[in-house]
Q: What sequence folds into this?
């Protein structure tokens, strides 16, 4: 794939994630699907950029806001949507819902409903890769709130001691639910905590897909050559509230207006237009194409069967 085509594909993936999350928000609002969901609209550049140069054998561990990560790693929109509908054709056969989906076939080890719960999972996966003599890398997504959990510190220390092949990637959207980071975290930049574990740490603009892609690519290259783990902090912002029940009335209007101007999709579209890789008609076509993908996903989910009650106790482990 040429560099030009690659850039447009990054844009296409971001548009798909936005279309998917926008539709899920609407479906939840109308009661078409039930339960909770944590949407990543506004954070598409982190998911797409971070996964852009991963190899098929590289692994991703996600968190509660994981639809974008799954789609960016190659997840099937049909099966993700079916899982949100609680249908048998979903990735967890309708049992996991929004926060508990995985697909080992594409290296997506799963989302996680526990704050910081995926960090030790990623650390264990990295240890397994090292013990097997593999040169694959584990990419671990988590939020700023998770960076204050004990699992964060314990995992980073262990990974540093054992030189594990893992990139810890913090999506700092400035709020842990409704709590501003400034009121819960003693440091300005979470990436500065990397120094305590003698690993590289960097802060990047999380709404710039190319910056995120390059940062993760540099770290994975270093890690594959035996460089040990790293911590990347991506400054970003979510469009919707923390979850479907959050009216998001705690954020200053001026702050929301500022970040609206930093929306990653129009920002990258501007770059593509300036480079002559995309025009208005092309952007409109991509938007319609991705809306059609989501239409198909909804139709697939609607037609999918409900799980058989006779299989209720299947796939249970103790």
A:
């Amino acid at each position: 794939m040429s560099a030009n085509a690659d850039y447009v594909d990054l844009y296409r993936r971001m548009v798909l994630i936005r279309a998917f999350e926008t539709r899920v928000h609407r479906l939840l609002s109308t009661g078409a699907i039930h339960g909770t969901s944590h949407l990543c609209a506004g954070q598409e550049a982190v998911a797409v950029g971070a996964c852009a140069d991963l190899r098929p054998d590289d692994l991703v561990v996600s968190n509660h806001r994981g639809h974008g990560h799954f789609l960016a790693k190659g997840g099937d929109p049909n099966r993700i949507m079916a899982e949100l509908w609680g249908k048998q054709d979903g990735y967890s056969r309708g049992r996991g819902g929004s926060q508990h989906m995985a697909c080992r076939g594409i290296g997506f080890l799963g989302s996680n409903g526990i704050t910081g719960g995926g960090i030790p999972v990623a650390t264990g996966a990295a240890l397994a890769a090292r013990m097997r003599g593999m040169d694959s890398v584990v990419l671990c997504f988590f939020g700023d709130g998770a960076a204050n959990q004990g699992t964060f510190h314990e995992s980073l220390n262990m990974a540093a001691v054992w030189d594990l092949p893992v990139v810890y990637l913090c999506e700092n959207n400035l709020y842990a639910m409704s709590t501003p980071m400034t009121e819960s975290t003693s440091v300005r930049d979470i990436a500065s905590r990397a120094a305590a574990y003698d690993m590289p740490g960097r802060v990047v603009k999380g709404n710039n897909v190319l910056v995120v892609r390059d940062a993760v690519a540099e770290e994975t290259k270093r890690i594959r050559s035996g460089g040990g783990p790293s911590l990347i902090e991506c400054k970003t912002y979510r469009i919707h509230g923390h979850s479907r029940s959050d009216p998001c009335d705690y954020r200053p209007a001026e702050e929301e207006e500022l970040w609206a101007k930093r929306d990653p999709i129009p920002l990258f579209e501007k770059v593509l237009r300036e480079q002559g890789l995309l025009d208005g008609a092309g952007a409109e076509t991509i938007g319609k194409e991705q809306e059609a993908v989501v239409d198909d996903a909804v139709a697939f989910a609607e037609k999918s069967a409900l799980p058989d009650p006779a299989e209720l106790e299947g796939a249970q482990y103790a």
User: Anything to note?
Assistant: Residues 3-295 form a domain with the Rossmann fold fold (CATH 3.40.50.970).
